[in-house]
């Protein structure tokens, strides 16, 4: 990604990569100092000692909705806001006031119990059964899936697995489902097998890296085989208005182009 603040953060090549693969990586999307300050707050919330691995007895602990300054600042840097404009369109998204869920993953031989290919649902989330949460072709409630790296994440540190280009297979499943869309249970009935042949990427990088992903991107958690706990937030970028991306509005927007070829 480009580092010159006088130019757009995403080059034409970056945008085309997003259209084809369903995600783009932005290095130094927010300062490492924000990540360091944020991790300190997260360790405090965990009530664990970062210097005492003996206390890390669970493979994953989920922390939710942190709105302190380091998190809000990380989510709203000029670099990221400009990238949102490039992918989703200026005036078509809402600023983040919290940074969503942090599934903190610890080195462990134990099965974390949450590994499996999926897409993140975006409405109907008032149901207590998350398998009944829904997604539709307009991606109501979600303009992007975002992965904020608050620690350095290497290949052994439980990086999120991504199926490149899988947003297109999900779009083809959603096209006939109308405004009601499909539930996670309905999408999972096939085990997301239609995207199983696609190449995989890993969301690795230094603290301060952000992956901006299409909301239909198929992805998965994995076990932590490294030495240092992994801190990553996975908030949505929410669209302005209830109807989501609205694929008929502007066929040239990258978030629209990323699936348009699959559904027309």
Task: Characterize the structure shown.
The chain has one domain (12-263): q2cbj1_9rhob like domain (Jelly Rolls), CATH 2.60.120. The model has no long low-confidence stretch (mean pLDDT 92). The longest helix is centred in the N-terminal third of the chain and has 15 residues, at 32-46. With 264 residues, the chain is of the alpha+beta class. The protein has helices at residues 12-21, 32-46, 69-75, 78-88, 167-174, 184-188, 254-263; strands spanning 23-26, 60-64, 101-105, 134-135, 144-149, 161-163, 182-183, 200-202, 210-213, 219-220, 232-233, 236-237. The protein is 25% helix and 15% strand.
In a few lines, what is going on in this structure?
This protein has seven helices and twelve strands. It has helices at 12-21, 32-46, 69-75, 78-88, 167-174, 184-188, 254-263; strands at 23-26, 60-64, 101-105, 134-135, 144-149, 161-163, 182-183, 200-202, 210-213, 219-220, 232-233, 236-237. 44% of the residues are buried.
The CATH topology assignment is Jelly Rolls
**Secondary-structure arrangement, i.e. CATH architecture:** Sandwich
Number of helices: 7
| Overall radius of gyration | 18 Å
Mean pLDDT: 92
Gross morphology:
globular
Distance between the termini: 31 Å
The helix content is 25-40%
Count of structural domains: 1
The top-level CATH class is Mainly Beta
Poorly predicted residue ranges = none
Biggest sheet features: 5 strands, antiparallel
